Fold these 3 entries.
Entry 1:
Amino acid sequence: MRLAVPPALRMPRGLTLIVATFVAAVAMVLGLGVAGASATSATPAPPAEGAQFTVGGIIQAGPGNPIEGAEVLVEGNGIEETGVTGADGRWSVALPGPGEYTATLDPDSLPEGIEPTQPDNLTRQVNASTTSTINLLFPVGEEGAAPVVRDEGALLADRIWTQVVNGIIFGLFLALAAIGISLIFGTTGLNNFAHGEMVTFGAIVFWFLSAAFREMAFPLNVILAGVITLVASGAFGWAQDAGIHKPLRSRGVKLVQAMIVTIGLSLAVRYVFVIIFGTGDQTLNVGFSGAVDIGAARVSWTSVASAIISAVILVLVGLFLTRTRIGKATRAVSDNASLAAASGINVDRIIRIVWVLAGTLTGLSGVLYGLYRGVSWDMGFQILLLLFAAVTLGGLGSAFGALVGALFIGLATEVSAVWLPNDLRYAIALVILILVLLVRPQGFLGRKERIG
Amino acid sequence: MDWGTILGNAISQIASPTTAAYALAAIGISVHFGYTGLLNFGQAGFMAIGAYAFAIATLGFGWPVWAALLMVILASVVFAFILGLPTLRLRADYLAIVTIAAAEIVRYVVSTTGLTPVTGGASGLSGFSGGFYALNPIPEGTYGFGPFTYTADGWWVRIVGWTLVAIATVLVWLLMRSPWGRVVKGIREDEDAVRSLGKNVYSYKMQSLVLGGVLGGLAGFVFILPRAVQPGNYGTALTFFIYTLLLLGGAATVFGPIVGAMIFWVVLSLSNGIIVGLVESGIVSFLTPDQAGQIRFIIVGVALMLLVIFRPQGIFGNKKELSFSV
């Protein structure tokens, strides 16, 4: 056993660094979160807490001078609602789902002597897609006073910070699914194009269960639905290996052929989802509400809890891979399957465990991502390329690389939205993928010989 | 259920311009995948490039048809170079991921709202085919028999589409019998062996990528003649459909792409007609007509899996020639 492991011992050193960075990032986010929460707890709750997609912001004429009663009209996607700022200057409007909206500040609703500092920029386009909480800033100031109270730089910094927080959360969800892809690729060499459907599977099963358990009290319904979803997702992974890939390996089917089989599976399963779920977007509401300020970013507690769950699970997966016998055997198989088999490791059993683990992690990623942006039949397929980009950037087959790659992709998609149109955010991640392949084809943590 | 209409619709798919476009794109993939062993998953991107190049050259620049067609070819060549430069030295699965990513980048870029004046954004472009139909030499009227009855314009688009398919087929057939074709097939079998014979493998792969890419771009042109350009049509599903029909016919065969495209569309239309017919006549009550329309995608997916597992060489293929050696 021990003899089989040394080739893969390179990873823990990388791991320590990654886990440290990662824990620091999460701690930073949470630390700021607690500080933000204590600051806002005394103020009245904005009207739209707990909704899946919200648009909102603070309207204030300078620091410590919030404007009460300012009205922002949000239109689009069949809604027309007005958000009114409270005593703390905050307003927010719940959106029915992803889509295009416009938000317009009504200048007449501002108190006497206060006017917008950008009178020709009162209508903003809002594109709700992956980010569930959208912050808008309508700068206002006293009439005739120095026009910009909060200067452009600070506004930009606020927007970037909001997107950084969103990017870390999104990256954590991606990481859960990307590690699944990476483990499967590492042990079998297979690029699994049906992985996106494993994400959707988790979200859809959870959606049905949370609807079925609607009558139950809050923590119990989520826990029960979550546990059943994870078991079902693990079974889905098991079924893919037992039903398709184990027989293909026994027949000696080549990897490209097996990859095209996963493409066929992806197509078939995706349209089974359409038939049972429909083409609409559904929101997941588990009865967990509230939001928290992390610096300038407003994040729902659901997202914070999801991010913490992802982080904990990722650390556990890291410990599993480095500390347990099965985890070490998994890395030995990734390193050299024949050598692992020769030293007494049951390679087929390890691959089966990897499929179940990947299914469970990916299903969890689907549940959390579904809570974050709603459930749709092709939600997993939409992020499949981001997952591949994460895995490729980190280094094909390196589980820890997948984590780094996923956080990088999450940040890149969200932060690029500060400067670029929202509908190009995924394109940016893919452009980065191609550019990185140009200069460092083996990815951040991959080994050079892997590129062949 | 009206069996006559269902059968007639299915049979008329054999000659439809969409079938021609799919066949042309599949010939491109057969050059990449079947003969050279390049795993190009971005053929939808080449088709999008071709379609938008033609539409923008016609609508935006007001160019005549021949100049717009040159634009299609030029844009496809440029896209092939952009795609090939970073990836052709890498392993096959990298090429697969990068090509699929590049095709998606194209789709995101043409559908972004910022480019609406040029590309029409999410709603796409239309009204670009006037110049093409003005070249139609066939006098007005309706010609043909049975399910193959079309207007003069219907005949014109079919004649042009299938002529392009025929030219591409002959060209690829001749090329693959030439010394160039033998080198390219050698790369598919064993890259290192070809390299050791002093051939520049990278350059041959690039030539193959450009050739198949231009065929993909022309397929995009044929694809849009009977319809508008819409970015939603160029998703990854399009590429996977083309792979399915190519594997159906046989990836490294002369007539595989054509017969594959015909069988693909006839079977798709037939099964869709039957399922929708069963639902509408109330025999199948657990599906709505909308859901019934999705079943064909499930059929394609399952067919792709079964084909690859049980008959990877397709209908015409020679099992020895296609060993998927990556």
Note: Chain B touches chain A through 47 residues (CB under 8 Å).
Entry 2:
Amino acid sequence: MSMNRRQFLKIAGLTTIAGVGGPVIVAGMKERLLEASELVDVPERSGALTAQRWGMVVDMSRFRTEADRQKVIDACHHIHNVPDFGNPKDEIKWIWPETYEHAFPGREDEYMPHALKEMPFLVLCNHCANPPCVRVCPTKATFKRKDGIVMMDMHRCIGCRFCMAACPFGARSFNWRDPRGKDAQGRPFIRKENPEYPTRTIGVVEKCTFCTERLAKGLQPACAEASDGGLVFGDLEDENSDIRNKLRNHFTIRRKTELGTSPSVYYVIGGAEHV
Amino acid sequence: MYDGNKIIIGLVVFGLLIISPILYNTLGKASVPPEPDINTPEINKMVEKKCVEPKSFMRANHMQILNDWRDEVVRVGKTRTYVNGEGKEFNMSLQNTCMKCHSNKKNFCDKCHTYMAVKPYCWDCHIAPKEKTT
């Protein structure tokens, strides 16, 4: 069969289109087939708490005594199997007290109330909108979830501690020692294990996760639950949430806003009747 | 060939030594693949002894499922719910779902893992259940 120039060009053109476009079409079909045969549509579990951006208000007027603060810290640290190594160098902390001067450096004034200056503020991971820890993590072990929570994936953490250097709030702790170990007196570092939650291993960094495991079950974070209203947890993007209501009605400050990380944890210093 | 007998005998001995592990395994007792034990109080209580997915699937793919669950729980999910082939829902959790039934890690997980010489690092962090075997 002989072929003229015109026919040849037609066939060549069609072949090119088939060659370039074919795989795309086939791939597209395959994807659709997979989707149809597999169950990907997971129904929303009823009661799971969801938000656009989770945040917290720490109302310091409710944390006047050591007991008030310790109750909250213990609730968190027990439920998450946070070890107590008994020495500040190795300390692991998810939520802990910090003086005003340390929590809000640059905001302390010469003549401010002494009580306020020395007052231990409850501090925790700020779950920043622009988290520097996430930017520096080389393995993406720490990442930002869609609901604003800065989360850790312990399976991926290689213990490089870049995130600790990046975090301006000291919210991250490194496991210098095996949290499952025992001290010299034979006392385990984790006093009482919570069998529902994993521990960590030596050589990983850990921090507050806003209790993602509890949110999935429809529960408030452990600290907020134990705080009797001292910690208000909610959706910062939802105008009608408790937290937005609190923010509307109180003057609040955040830690180190000048660094531009935009923390999601707000502090109410206390009403006129308190300070 | 000088000293041919000695060389041939030496070669035979050498050959036997080289294949001795194979001979040992074929002539001796072949090691029996272990059967994971599902004899726990929790499983015995079940009317229908069913895992998340069918046994054959779990046997071949439990590591894949665990990997998927881990990614879903830690990285993606807000629901943490697994829907199996029959439409039943499960909470994606090693400690709170898998090990609640298989509360005999030594006779269930470790038995095969030791046989296969695999060392998953699950238990570096995840808390193993208290051993229960009836």
Note: The radius of gyration of chain A is 26 Å.
Entry 3:
Amino acid sequence: MRILIVEDERQIALDLQTALGEAGYVMDLAYDGETAWYLGDTEDYDAVLLDLGLPKLDGMTVLKRWRAAGRTMPVIALTARDSWRDKVDGIDAGADDYLAKPFQMEELLARVRSIIRRGSGNTSAVLTIDTVMLDTKQQDATVDGRAVGLTQLEFRALSYLMHHKSCVVSQGELTEHVYGQDFPHDSNAVEVLIARLRKKVGTTFIRTKRGQGYIVGGE
Amino acid sequence: MTSKSLRLRLLTAAAIAIAMALTLSGIVLSRLFSQHVEAREIAELRNHQNQITAALEISTDSVVQLNTLPADPRFAKPNGGLYWQIDLPDGTKYRSRSLWETELTLPVDDILDGVSHQHLIKGPNNQTLLAVERSLTVGPEIKPIQLRLTVAVDRKDLDTAVTDFRQVLMASLGILGLALILASLAQIQVGLRPLARLRVALQSVHSGDAERVTGEYVSEVQPLINDMNALLDRERQNNVRARERAADLAHGFKTPLAVLSAVARELQRDEQSKNDKLKHAAEINTQIDLMGRHVRSELARARTVGASTIRRTPVPLKPLIEKIVAALARISADRNLRWIIDVAPDTSFIGDENDVLELIGNLADNASKWAKAKVILRAHHDSKLLRIEIEDDGPGIPAGTEDEVLMRGRRLDETTDGTGLGLSIVAKIVAAYAGTITLIRKPAGGLIVALQFPR
């Protein structure tokens, strides 16, 4: 799962990066509105944390521009202004959720999980497909009730595939959402990762569509 | 009028009105006077005419003679100012001595017998004369003679009289005008005295000698004073409250700060185990959370405008509630809650829009957190009351704990999100509008939060 963090306060950005990294997400960081707008407009994210008070271009404008350009990724607005007027205006501008600063990190993580789930039509933190159960909160998986240990990369890949159940996910897309900006130079990296995952969750769970990508569930 | 002085404005207006009235009456009076003088003069001339007519004597051979000359000495003196002339059909003219060598040249006109009319003609020294002319038929019936009898007076006398009158008139009207302006000045002075008194009173409020504007004022000014006093009272109350709040906030920070400093000292001591570090971090978080609550509550209170005696604009509730529901429905999209809005289109809240947004927003947010499947928002008003209800079908609260929950909501150290801060903010806004909050338990589970506001 790939998340864009837009926050001009470096300390808070770092805190968010650490916390979200520990929770198994891949992140891009933007410290100002222009960079944020460009990244959100050209890259593909599963969620965006958007501070509304930003230098160069304010968050509200960035959000409106994304929505006007047809970018539909879920956005959580972060702001020190917590009146209902601000909340209503933020959601009017296209935010999917609103979190007032200062916030508790657990609360933020819960909101991020919920907003990503919502995007994929799931209502629970635990995703189940066939015999595989993935707990997105605990970052672990069970197959037939038997726990299988997952590395960060494996968790990210499995989580992305399971959130996009019945959709073909291309190798490029998976690379982006699993590695973020630290693209592996080894072009076989994703194949190796999928092979490792198949050993843990069963060879038939992740199927390969020749020339297109990978798919989980469906049929 | 660009002047900002009330006195100058009133005075200018009075002066203009007085000047206009006096000028008009001057014009009317002098015209009336000259008409009157002219009428008198014409009557006089007729009189002379009648005298001359009476003195006319026509002999049998039709020779016209005057048996007595008119008595007025001006007829006898050359250029005396009063003239007569008789024109006979054969061109013979009889004239007063005053005409001396000259004669009166009358305009050629037909004139009915016995009728007299007036002309302005040129006199002996080229002066303007006011002339009354009459055609007369005299003499024996078999051989009547038609003659024209003219009596004329120098207009100069008349004009002098009118000019003299005008001078006197202008002088007296001028004096009258001055007197009137002085009178209105005095009137303005007396009329504006309460304002001068008010200024002194306000100065003493400003300097802190008095708390409100004292004294009885004229009925036109008193309502203003009452409003001003109400404003001053409110300002003072707000001031007191602001100071109390600042003190509250500062006190609210004292304990967390003391705890934080204790934690810092603890951290400086010896080696800390991982467990200790986690415990200290948790303690720091708790204190930060507590301070954050104080700050947020204070911010919410600072935003509250409250029921103002001055601004009482109705805020339509339906669009506002729809906005809140749209926002909350989006935030809680994964829960598939059913939102029911039962609000008459004309329902309105009298006060600040952001206040009522905060109020309903917080309560609807609470309700959506507790609700199982649906949230209902109702708002209706009549002439006396506005009633807003937010209902959820969640677990509700235990019987008999309604007051306790409200009290708990007002305290800040309550940690359950959704019952703590939200309800505390709501309680403050409701109090600022002199409204009431009631919690109603639903027997089948669920809770109704009912707000009532006087209108």
Note: Chain A has a mean pLDDT of 87.
